[in-house]
Amino acid sequence: MKRLPKKIEYIDPVAQTIWHTVVDTMDQYTNDSVLSKFYLPEELVTHCRSTASIFAQVHYAPLLEPDEAYKTRLYTLFLFSMMCGVQIYLKERSMIKNYPYYKIVSNERLVKEARQKVTKLLFDGAVILETIDQVINMFLAQLMVIRQKRRFTIKDKIFDEEKFDRFLPASILWGYLFTKELIID
Fold it and tell me: What distance in Å separates the CA atoms of residue 83 and residue 45, rounded to the nearest whole number?
């Protein structure tokens, strides 16, 4: 997964640095854990889990129950893609602001408002920098290659492939925008 996609003719050096930094965190582990540094901070992962579950639920007809959604491969892929978005924002912020400390909003009301704002941005069409768009496209190129639609089928459920093609990029962008809303300098 560490190779850059060949479809992009010009890759911004900042986008390339962010890409490599995020991918490198997948291979790094904390001193006291078997958990990859890619999945930190936990405060953001918790919120991504519930949203990834919702994203997975709506891809099936009839809809999955929440506890069923958590057991699917689709949920895992959406969680991973959201964490890519979280990491993209954190790495971008670190590069631009020279690695400053940050605080994550923990107030439930503010988190709920951030979720609503990000959802509205996704529906209205969020505008992001070309650099970040390139990084997202690099991840999508990798995720779309490994995707096999038959792996997401569930007995007695119909999988919506068209919806998946729209939701996968949205899930990365959701992680990026949500983190942007919850980080305080």
Answer: 7
Q: Could you tell me the pTM of the whole model?
A: 0.85
Structural domain harbouring 163: 13-24+38-184
Residue identified by tokens 């639920």 is 57
Does 31 fall in a domain? no
Neighbours of 55 (CB within 10 A): 25
- For residue range 23-32, list pLDDT tens digits in order: 888 877 766 6
3-state secondary structure 33-96: CCCEHHHCCHHHHHHHHHHHHHHHHCCEECCCCHHHHCCCHHHHHHHHHHHHHHHHHHHHHHHH
**Using omega within 30 degrees of 0 as the cis cutoff, is the peptide bond preceding 62 cis?**
yes
And the tokens for 164?
A: 């998946």
